[in-house]
Amino acid sequence: MRKLAPINYLPSELFLSILDFAIHAEASNLYDPRRVQELAMVSRRWRDTIHNFPMFWTTIILSPQWSTTLVETHVQRSRNRLLDIRVLHWNNIDDPKLLRQLLRALLPCASRWCNFIVEYFRVDRILDIIVETIESVKPSFPSLIRFALCGVYGLTYPPQFLKHENVPSLEELVLSCAESCGIVQIPPTVSSLYLEASISDTIPTAPFSISQPSGILTTLTIWGYELHPFPPNSLHFPSLKSLTFAANELGLMLDALVAPQLSTLCYRSNDVQDEMPDGSQIVAKFPVLYHFQLFTSPFIDDVTACICDTFPAVRHLELPTYWIESLFSLDNGYCFADEWEDLQLCEVYWSAPDSGHGIAQDISQFVSWLEQRRLMGKPMLHVRIRGVRKMAYPVSVVQNALQDNCILELEGVNFDTQVVR
């Protein structure tokens, strides 16, 4: 009697998990329509399991490698499950008819769309085909939670089908495009909004503005845009907790923003002349902002002082090594970081070039400030160093310089920290 393979003795629930992992563990498996068929050919049990369980058919890839029949098969076998749809790999538009056919095969089940993601291509006409095909039938998407255009060329306005009446459940909106989206209307159900415009010589970064601010928006990312001149206190986001601002004119944004629940700010910019409004005028607007990520070129002293005054409640600071001199130098016994009396954690991302010039020029001012802080009887600061592999000298040099004056953690390095209190 032929002995069954060990996998055939597994309980059905565990067997399903293994198949699901085999299909979805690697992103590349999702893009190859042959993967499910290959697994279904192993045995009758594998075939029946895969064909009869909708969980294996809810991800649909609209790419040149997929046929209309394959899309229709996924729609049928997924039954009433919600669908994740991705548009991928359209590097040319030799066959626009196929893209339209794939979309039309999906539109009858628009009520089941849960995620719709268009990823990375450089052909303007593709996005036009997607928008035109969808809007030609004026569907509604009552189950759509996430809509994302990632690295897509050609968008000059948000698609009309993203109006609130068409997407009443939309929670996440990503518009990562190479052109400005102009005025961005935020559906009132959106809690996470990501806006990005690429900066290049051929595609100018045009201004954008926001209308209908969302009362439930908790996460906002603005990347690469030039802002319209918003009036002071004109952007009301009462639930906003996290803001990533990777553009110039942070001062203009903060002056316009009303977000009393904002707790995390990530700032990225290459404009060293970025101006800030008077910190005393806006400090009361962000009373709970405790997590500050500062990844921009160091400011002039006046702007640095304004940053510290504006966010006095910072407890968690992230910054690259080239910010150390601006924030932690002890001029006349005082440094700007002293304004953060409640600071508990400082994460330093090692960005110094491998010049071998020694630790004295990299973090000596930080060490002096930590030593002064310890001698004043303040609580030990938790210091986490990231990017250890970029150091031009042994890790032990950094460890010996810092560990007596802080609670030290080196990313990827295990050692027993000796803390002198």
Write a concise synopsis of the structure shown.
The chain has 421 residues and is an alpha/beta fold.
What does this structure look like?
The chain has helices at 12-24, 27-31, 34-40, 44-52, 68-77, 96-106, 124-136, 250-256, 279-282, 301-310, 324-328, 360-375, 395-402; strands spanning 59-62, 83-87, 113-121, 146-152, 172-177, 183-185, 192-197, 207-211, 219-223, 226-227, 235-236, 242-246, 257-258, 264-269, 291-296, 316-320, 345-349, 382-386, 407-410. By secondary structure, the protein is α/β, with parallel strands linked by helices. Strands 1-2-3-4-5-7-9-12-14-15-16-17-18-19 form a 14-stranded parallel β-sheet, with helices on one face. A 3-stranded parallel β-sheet has the order 6-8-10, with no helix packed on it. Strand 15, helix 10 (301-310) and strand 16 (316-320) form a beta-alpha-beta unit. The longest helix has 16 residues, at 360-375.
What characteristics describe this protein?
three-stranded parallel beta sheet, disordered C terminus, 421 residues, alpha/beta, 14-stranded parallel beta sheet, globular, 19 strands
